[in-house]
Amino acid sequence: MSEENLKEKEEIKPSISFIEQFIADDLKEGKNSGRIHTRFPPEPNGYLHIGHAKAICLSFGMAQKYGGKCNLRFDDTNPVKEDVEYIDSIKEDIHWLGFDWENREFYASDYFGKLYDFATDLIKRGLAYVDDQTAEIISAQKGTPTQPGTESPFRERTVSENLDLFVRMNNGEFEEGSHVLRAKIDMTSPNMHMRDPIIYRIIKTSHHRTGNKWMVYPMYDFAHGQSDYFEGITHSLCTLEFEVHRPLYNWLIDQLKTGDYRPRQIEFNRLNLTYTVMSKRKLLQLVQEGSVSGWDDPRMPTLCGLRRRGYTPESIKKFIDLIGYTKVEAINDVSLLEHAVREDLNLRTPRVFAVLNPLKVIITNYPEGKVEEVELINNPEDETKGTRNIPFSREIFIEQDDFMENPPKKFFRLAPGNEVRLKGAYIIKCDGFKKNEKTGSIEEVYCTYEPDTRSGEPGSEKKVKGTLHWVSAKHAINAEVRLYDRLFNHEDPAGQKDDDYRNFLNPGSLKVLRGCKIEPSLGSAKPLDKFQFQRLGYFCVDYESTRENPVFNRTVQLKDTWSKINK
RNA sequence: UGUCCUGUAGUGUAAUUGGCAACACGUCUGAUUCUGGAUCAGAAGAGUUCAGGUUCGAGCCCUGACAGGACAACCA
Q: Domains of chain A, with CATH numbers?
């Protein structure tokens, strides 16, 4: 590449998303006095997943980048479905991702009073009315997407009657479902959401924050935009399915606003990942039916699941950065997520030796009882991480996969007559093995070592094709290792019309290995500590790990060219 | 039989006021390597859903098709 081209390439600015473009334009035009203020509005009825992370990164990220603020606002307008239980986990996950809302922790329920007053105001202005019909009838009158609705017989009630009824609804004089408050807009609108939408309903369940103060609760459409308005939000970023709500959002803001300020709703595509499901309902179902061990099962796309799996916040942010924000409903390949986590972990994790499926190797010409300390580099990507010593002795464990009695052509590992390097130690040659004739399994392998080939010694210059990791048998610690694979064996389990997504659960998504042999330095590892098990993948200490039974979760495998060649 | 949104390599995204379709992942070569990792060098792969139109010139503008999605919860 010529110097000129190189310069050109360096000058390419990372392109910004259409949302950021809107924001930049609004700021430039001086809308809302040049402020940017966003919000992240989770409903406290479940755990956050990586799709939420995409929304969090956008709303917090835009505010950060353009010198604004981002509020955390719990959208708690439905006491039937919501619970405090979820609030702490949601806050923990946002913090874990590295974002902070300072003192701006809000709740839609903070505004129940203002919302009630606004509803009353709409009634007074003839823009809302109480409907006494059942849900079924109201629904039938709504029409269909292709047919206009018909007006409710209660649509023309007097203001005073409406006012009286609404007060009594909130006093608990009526049963749930018997009355609703509706905005009076247009029953013939081609947009169903404008056909006199229900804005208040009676719910007698106690609310986790306001207790039994209210008997009427605002619907999403009547709470969200107004909450934005009350908080001075300038850009209300949400997912595509709310696009059709935008006219209603704007209509309500129009009734509410008194000056130039108005929040703007912009919609982007939600995150879909291959080989998993993302809806809260389905995730909850997986938990309840025991398909996974809980919300934080390392196979779950929840943030707590990914954390337990060994993902770092940086890797998730990197991934989200990579996929971008558009209006196209896309399914993103998990392999991109895996790439992001490998890239991150490659730089930060210490390399260690762990043998998952041990096969004993006896070095027949190595003195019995002798132990040598060999030095290994902790992280070749980061010299400052230094070195460590691990013991070497006559009997070691290697991976069962690293020995073959009858190897194919390009097998660079151990086989009868073959030489390999034991990483950090000696070159050994295989000159025999013990096979269980009944089962056909290899039980022991016998080798001889070349004393002058120890790493660092002059003889170590000798080239061999393969290098194996190993653990000294006498010094190894036993460990449990949990190998995770994709939860589903279909790219799009939820998108199959005739098949329930549960039919695609991958029966091999969790494989528990016991009796794995890990190097002694791992004895002091703490939950969430991350390592690269050399030649295998990235692993993370599980919460259930104890000194007696260390437990490691596999985050992701290393890229494996050999398995491809071998196919 | 409506309204709204969306169609760019296998996947996800780019492409100033119309100006040689670019990047990442994945795939494939080769180099290098005491991790079959990482790194480095390179390659293949789309002519932008289709058909018209405007223009010297269209992924971008216009018209019309086609395809996919969203909308008919007293959910958010």
A: 3-268 (3.40.50.620), 280-348+479-565 (2.40.240.10), 353-475 (2.40.240.10)
